[in-house]
Amino acid sequence: MRVKKELDRAKLVAAAMGQIPCDLSIENIRLVNVITGEIYPAAVDLLDGVIVRVRADGHAAEQPSAKIYDGKGRYLVPGCIDIHMHVESTMMTPENFGRAAIRCGTTSVFVDPHEIGNVLGIDGVKFMVDNAKASPVRQFNLAPSCLPSVPGAEGNGAVFGPAEIAALLETDGVYGIAEMMDFYNMIHNSEKMRGIADEGLKRDMLIQGHAPKLSGGAIAAYALAGPTDNHSIRTGWEVVENLHAGLYVDLQSSSLETSSMPKLLEGLKGMRYTDHVCLCNDDVHAKDLLETGHVNRLIKEVLQQGIDPMDAYRWATYNAARSARIEDLGAIAPGYLADLQLLDELDGRDPAAVFSEGRLVVENGELLDPPQNRPIPDTVLGSTVRVVGLDGPKSLRLAAPAGAGERVRVAVLDYDTPTARSDLFYEELPVKDGFVDIAGREDLCFVAVFNRHGAADHTVTVARNFYLKEGAMATTVSHDCHNLALCYKDPADGYLAAKTLIDCGGGFCTVHSGAVTGLLELPVAGLMSLLPLTELVPAIAKQEKATDEIFAKPGCMMKLALIALACTQNAVITDRGLFDGRTQKFYDQFPVEN
Amino acid sequence: MRVKKELDRAKLVAAAMGQIPCDLSIENIRLVNVITGEIYPAAVDLLDGVIVRVRADGHAAEQPSAKIYDGKGRYLVPGCIDIHMHVESTMMTPENFGRAAIRCGTTSVFVDPHEIGNVLGIDGVKFMVDNAKASPVRQFNLAPSCLPSVPGAEGNGAVFGPAEIAALLETDGVYGIAEMMDFYNMIHNSEKMRGIADEGLKRDMLIQGHAPKLSGGAIAAYALAGPTDNHSIRTGWEVVENLHAGLYVDLQSSSLETSSMPKLLEGLKGMRYTDHVCLCNDDVHAKDLLETGHVNRLIKEVLQQGIDPMDAYRWATYNAARSARIEDLGAIAPGYLADLQLLDELDGRDPAAVFSEGRLVVENGELLDPPQNRPIPDTVLGSTVRVVGLDGPKSLRLAAPAGAGERVRVAVLDYDTPTARSDLFYEELPVKDGFVDIAGREDLCFVAVFNRHGAADHTVTVARNFYLKEGAMATTVSHDCHNLALCYKDPADGYLAAKTLIDCGGGFCTVHSGAVTGLLELPVAGLMSLLPLTELVPAIAKQEKATDEIFAKPGCMMKLALIALACTQNAVITDRGLFDGRTQKFYDQFPVEN
Fold this sequence. Notes:
Two copies of one chain form a homodimer. Chain A contains 14 helices and 29 strands. The N and C termini of chain A lie far apart (62 Å). In chain A, helix 4 (162-169) links the parallel strand 8 (138-143) and strand 9 (174-180). In chain A, helix 4 (162-169) packs parallel to helix 6 (191-202) and helix 11 (295-304) packs across helix 12. The longest helix of chain A has 18 residues, at 114-131. Chain A is of the alpha/beta class. In chain A, strands 1, 2, 3, 4, 5, 14, 15, 16 and 17 form a nine-stranded mixed beta sheet that branches. A nine-stranded mixed beta sheet of chain A has the order 20-19-18-22-21-24-23-25-26, sandwiched between helices. A five-stranded parallel beta sheet of chain A has the order 6-7-8-9-10. At the A-B interface, helix 1, strand 3, helix 6, helix 7 and helix 12 of A face helix 1, strand 3, helix 6 and helix 7 of B.
């Protein structure tokens, strides 16, 4: 498939034949040909956003182009492509994300709007598509395949089955199905997941995968089920297994964990060809985007491991386009879209200039003539934290079962276990006035999750080793359903944090001694800020500082965002109860023997 | 796109998970992974014609397959793909061609039914599609894009414009547009060629190219016009130019000329990647198919030039499928069609066994259970030589212009010029009874072309250095319009040869002293025999022998088939007159000064 279907090919042909002038020539460049793996001096002529011709060095155009850009001997490389990411993780809107990532040389990304999908369903995806129209980075939005991630475990804002996926696949700007996370049901032929994959297959559209730690028959089954790539790989042997299963492997390094790139690259040793290798960020935080880059950060990482720069740039350009089956992206040749970057060195640095569909959009790090911001509809902005289960601080207390005495055995989520997973234990705790009492216990606090999609469901329990010293924190960024998550010593502080977020439309809030000490507003679906990158990063830093003040350890801000993540091997708390990711069952909060 | 759209994926998934048995396991093999470039011991499980799983050596299947095939330690390689060929050039029907080529390890071919299209139009293409259903080699028929090849130069059986191409593209079994030969009009934006390409582009279908000797702006223009590959390349610099223009390069070695493979491969030197390189036969004669092979012959050729076997097999498998944008062909991995060959060595030899969609179809050179022959409709068989301009031997005499005296200056086609091209000269020849007389001139004979598609057009002229000693020859294989072509000393012999072909439905016929001395019947559209390869090759040899007896040089049988080929840089004779391929204009047969 081609991104640009409505080309005036007769005009392009006439330009190639020298009968009419082109819009722009980029001259004096070293062309990086990712199709053949050569680098040679050349000039490139562009018209209507498309590459018309690559001229050999010194060969003048028959008709001079309207504009000439001097490449100053730099490398001309296709713009980079991130084959899988979640824009919401940057906490920026698609347009603001695009303005940040384009400076790094990224010109296309494949987006799973899974987070906003969980909040706003089809409307959320449509918002991402619309808002990305003002992004200088082309954003291929895909239909989130697993809403909710773990059916039954938690309440979210939308449930997608085959019908909803079909509706999205018929929506302009939706290019396929996003990571089919529910790999268990994929390889066990659940009717729903089979039905979702079939919607993509029958339209011959891209279906992306997510399949950690599968091997042998299981990874074969996953490939047969429909997906054509996998970015959820952490080891070299998985790289081998996935490539042998015919899948594209999207080498990932995200802001969420230590990079496993060295291990991943081990898997490629002994392979003559790496056509099925791409690069992706998955989740990248604003600070990392500002400080370390985007796809070019991944290039730096693989170069550090000794990968040849030609391979690295090819993974990030041509291979990604082939993985997505897009024929006019990812190379510099006639008919390809003129998404280009000029680089002083092939080392992952930010480009000296970026062209998007033939238009100069970045020069010397400056964004030129960004498109006007898109209006953000009311349905998305400031109105999505619909909590009905929270009725004052008392809702945040943990009532002991009727008939409990002075002490009660109660479920405690421990966040510092030897396995590095959160786990659940039962512990006997005092009961005061009918409520579980944690006073005097430095290692304990309360955690709670409240449905924020209009249902009354909520859960309160005790957490151990969450390292909250005092006060409270709340957030509406709470993967994957993005309910309202809280931690607190004092229910009154917790309530203030929650109330503050409800009023402002979501974000992160810290409270201490009855006063708000920090507020990061994320009014777009409770997930994204309206700030551009350079303002957002200090705002996040400020909120991190406020967080650090109430925690015994640094860097706890995002920890709260993961306490409800049911699609892991952890014990978690959701709006519906305490859930075991391993057995996919709920725990009793108070054991039966009580 | 996938060849097999209606897979029962739930069943395949269950098989991969070991819940149900597969149809077949090929065990004890060295798997040639053309995606990664590795070779490793493995076993492969197949179900419903599809690869379900590649098992590591020694890893038993949970459920034993219904059948086990012992690979005896051989290499398991994907079946070969010819990315461009004309089945008619083999003089076999598609089903018989398939039965021959499958033994060579070819499992898919991309077919331009250009020859039968010129005779029977859409019906001809539909016949090729239907007849190929009985072929063990999968045949992707494409819509012939240039009927006639040179509009106005000659009369053929069908004229294709955008409407006819559109009709074919909507026909089951037609996969795209075949080589867009009219490169001149492509790069000069003729409305018709633009319209034809647009029919393919708007359906996002494969468009194949044919663009000899283009470079710079012209090859860029050709790529922009729509085609995505080019097989009509004879030099290393064209390989470079085409790859730099983003096209796939189909390295060709045909039966029609000395192989230019060594020169072509020179073009690949210095390229790190060869993803855009494929292999094709274009035109392969039955004898060559029998004696030297098919795609495997090309592999032998490139190996002789020092190409790595892994690259060679990859060009013939994975790269070809990618060029055609087919995702379930060309590799051995879950979900790919089980088109496979077992090889003792990776050296281009015939395979020990071939599997087509999981079915063992060749073993030790023997074709197993070939499908029943398809019925051949009357419209195609024995009824296509519709000559109305031939009224006895007198039609084959060359009348001098009214008022000519005893001698006349007349156009003479010379077939042995210093440029190796046929060219036209004027020569003064005697006139006897009002007709040009060549009696006593050993170097001269007559050549004639009669429309055989129901029009009365015909041309008779004198040929020099055609090396016909005596008698006559006629053929209905006459590129590209496949009119009736004749050479003769005596019009009576010429008439007998022509009449014999008209009566039998076409082929090649030699006559000497008033008697038929050889007849190769090609009753299918006057182009193809009903014989299988092993019977056809001796039949052709017999006809070649009969031909050699009346010519002064050996190997002249196919020479007559090319005297009307207007899309070359030659002087040619068509049913409409004497035509200059360089200027695209007709010559006067008798110069004005006469």
